[in-house]
Amino acid sequence: MPVIAAPQHHHTHIRYRSLLRLAFLLLASSLPLILSINPLFAHSPSSQPVSHVPVQAVIPNRTVCHYSGVFKDANGNYHFSWLHVDSATGYIMDQHNCIVDLRGFNSAGTEYADGVSPFPGLNSQRLSWFNSMFKMNYIRLNLNVGWWNSNVYVPNAQMYYQAWIQQWISWAEQNGDYVLLNRTNEYQIPPCGGTITYCPAQGELSDLDDAYPQQQFNAGHLLDQTLAFWNSIVALYKNDPAILYDDWNELHDITASTWLTVQTTLITTIRSINPRSLIMLGSYDWNNTMNPITNGQVPDLAYPNLVYDWHIYDGVSGQLQGIPCNQGTSYMWAHWGTESMREFTFAHQHGHGAVINEWGGCLDAQQYNTALSTYAASNHIGMAYYMAGNVVTNDWAAINVNGILAQAAYARFSH
Fold first, then answer.
1. Digit-coded pLDDT (tens) for 12-54
2. Which of helix, strand or coil describes residue 320?
3. 179 in Cβ contact with 242 (< 8 Å)
4. Peptide bond into 387 cis (omega under 30)
5. Can you name the residues that pair with 196 across neighbouring β-strands?
6. CATH number of 68-411
7. pTM greater than 0.85
8. Hey, CA dihedral for 10, 12, 14, 17, is it positive or negative?
């Protein structure tokens, strides 16, 4: 808190108290009017029940937050604040205790196929155009652990994988975007392009994750490979406040107790190199719920600056730009309302951030879009649309129907 110097004269002290009393009365009498005309003082309306912050929590005065997390200097360069999770509210905040609402897109394609899609011919200008179309500040960069560790050559990027990912990060930061490094898969099949004609699939059949269900992490090479990846890339970005971490995307086919052991290993590994950055994590059921913790199967993770992650899809399937797309209905959407609020509220009340790191996906229905984004904006829950290529036309000349809805979703966040 600011330090207030003691008054030097008795009359000054009386005048100070009088002015303070007058200011208090004026503020109290005008508060209803302020709340009615300035949305920065209150949450946006929501069609769903809104979780309330405990009485003892201190909510920052957002009118004094001229920026949240990132600001641009006179030379056009972006500067990033270290983010943290407020232990009282579970909100993500910057170093000035301003709330930072992360919202953006998944790269999806930097971890399979040619390692470049869905941004064909990506350069800084193309990413700038994409940023200009959406009120975004966040990119979830999906990474192939095997490609990083062996540093394979990416023909369509004309550089090796580690250099390609670093280029991606540089372009994102040049556009004012926080970057979430997301450990997505781990196979060794190289990206296609040039003389390599086979493009590995997103869910590659030869991926060891598919051949052997994830049940022996602590004794197996999958965890060892992931720890080697984190030791390498965290060391590279340990002093960069724009970099955040998603320790293992969509764990599945393991028990709750093994999941907890794996998460503890991943978190402590990252924290040993970078003790400051946010770490995001989902459950052991493809990130559909956080039930192992919220239902008490395992104890809550008692680490600071953790953000719990949900993937929420509406189950609408059909044709997207002439290509068939199918997706299931996520648990959180099937139980939208009391159950979804219970899980989000649990995270915030236990001092953890909350994020929906995958949503949208195939066909973005209006009701679903509005319900998710309104609740997220009202309760300071981050969002990352899946995926960037699903909101633009095939030639990347304009945004499509999904893109228009995504624009409206992110416009619901105050800043």
1. 333 333 333 433 333 344 434 333 333 332 223 233 333 333 3
2. strand
3. yes
4. yes
5. 193
6. 3.20.20.80
7. no
8. negative
